[in-house]
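A quick aside before the break. I want you to see a complete sequence-to-structure record at least once, exactly as it would be stored in a machine-readable document. Don't worry about memorizing anything.
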Amino acid sequence: MAQGAKSKTVATGNCAYRGDHGGMCAIGCLIPDSKYTPDIEGYRVTSPRVQETLGLPTENRTQEDYENVRFLRELQDIHDGYYPEQWREELDNFARVHGLTVT
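That is the input. The structure line, written in tokens, reads:
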């Protein structure tokens, strides 16, 4: 939200976890610098490769693990599927659905 733009790479024009000029997407900002690798670009948060980078379990998952991935996927869908000027409304809706308080 704060950067006011999608995180993209100039080379492909695609959304990126870590884009050019220091941009990060809704999921990319959750990845520690020490864990980030360009190899995850092009994969959605539902990919085990991305989940491992985030420190999420990829085996012997609980229901909560699946719900966490779904939560992150919804955030990724907002970042990737809407224009920045639509994010506030979409994130407000997201917060309402998940019982979160917006400050």
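Two observations worth writing down. The chain has a mean pLDDT of 92. The radius of gyration is 14 Å. We'll return to this after the break.
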